[in-house]
Design goal:
Elements: H1 15-19, H2 23-33, E1 87-92, E2 111-117, H3 121-130, E3 136-137, H4 140-143, E4 151-154, H5 161-170, E5 174-177, H6 186-199, E6 203-205, H7 213-223, E7 230-238, E8 247-249, E9 254-256, H8 271-281, E10 285-294, E11 311-320, E12 325-331, E13 339-346, H9 374-387, H10 395-413, E14 419-420
Parallel strand pairs: 1-2, 1-4, 2-3, 4-5, 5-6, 7-12
Antiparallel strand pairs: 7-13, 8-9, 10-11, 10-14, 11-12
Length: 428
Amino acid sequence: MLSISYTNGGQTMNNEKRTGMTRREFVGAMGIAGAAISMSSVSAANDTKAADLPRDANGNVIAGFEDKGKPVAKSGKDWQPFSDRKIRVGIAGFGTCAFGAAFSFQNHPNVEVAAVTDLIPSRCEGLAKACRCQKTYPSCEEMLKDDTIEAVFIATDAPSHARLAIMALERGKHVASAVPAVYGSLEEAALLFEAVKKSGKKYMMFETSCFHTDLYAWRARYEAGQLGKIIYSEGEYFHYFGSPLTGYNPKTRNVDANGWRKGFPPQWYPTHSNAYYNGVTGNSFTEVSCMGMPSIVPHLRPENNDYKNPFGSEIALLRTSDGGMSRMAVTWDIPMNGGERGKVFGQKYDPKPLNLDRPVLPPGVDSGGHGGSHGYLMSDFVDAILRDRKPLVDIVQALNMTVAGIVAHQSALKGGELLKIPQYKMWV
């Protein structure tokens, strides 16, 4: 079983240690898994300068963006257009990470970025410039009133994702959302689920781990029956918040160190890790026992954050819907490691070669940050609209990835009590 890590800086065990393979065996296995990506035909758009990368309060590149602009994916000449139609897309949110422009909507041949918005005027101007868009709105709510916009990308602060997605769906728009789908609320999860069903529109959560080369390959092998049922899986999202990472603060109506990210429960942001089961199998978690550990980082102490959250790290053990087990870890206070990575172990392993290459991207579309996943997620969403098909991370997948973490935090607050997780199915 291969263990190929995508790492956001920090110190990690090398692949030889993690897999128990010799270097010769590892290289051979890499060839079988198709994890090596050709560097000879990369997008010319991959030219991001180090000075342009988003950084935290200490000047460090924010985790997930170290690889932006590096040649990690093929694009261009082998891509075949399905339609000449242009989807009019509105984009909400520039924020700390310039996220609204990071997924290359503005570069897709079948997209016209019709309007952009950010609550902070200077950031709205920056988003408009990055997306080469002339039309701006002072808020997402105002932009959603524009009936000429067919689809929106919600890249706003996490607490607003579900509310704005529901509003967009009610206005008859397709929705792409940054993670998580909902923020700590099972009630909002139910409302979002019903809104998607009622609208008949496409909803996709842009979970970046789903297009990491390792997870993409495991999903292909799983779907081909080469892994059987997954006995055990694990995922880790380690992101050190020694100093607060800025975020939108509704009290100040600005982006600052007291924004929504300060001290929030780790398992409220579980999708980067949970994807290493959900994103491989398409299945769900059914119950969870989670342990949390209080943090020594000052702003992660309960008396210093609005969530009254006592935990800097939360480690969940989950039962899967096909009877397996999974360990999913999210932590903000481990300083010597960082990244998004996982493993899957099936009841069988068939090494028969498969084509495990990720799809070719449209000309000019940058594969982007977080393991070269951004462009793939955007392209899948656009293609799902054009072909009228289910997007990769649809509402069922999105909620299965997200809600398990919400219940995991509840379990941690109860000392690890085993709790049932709500299940979401679009059709029986």
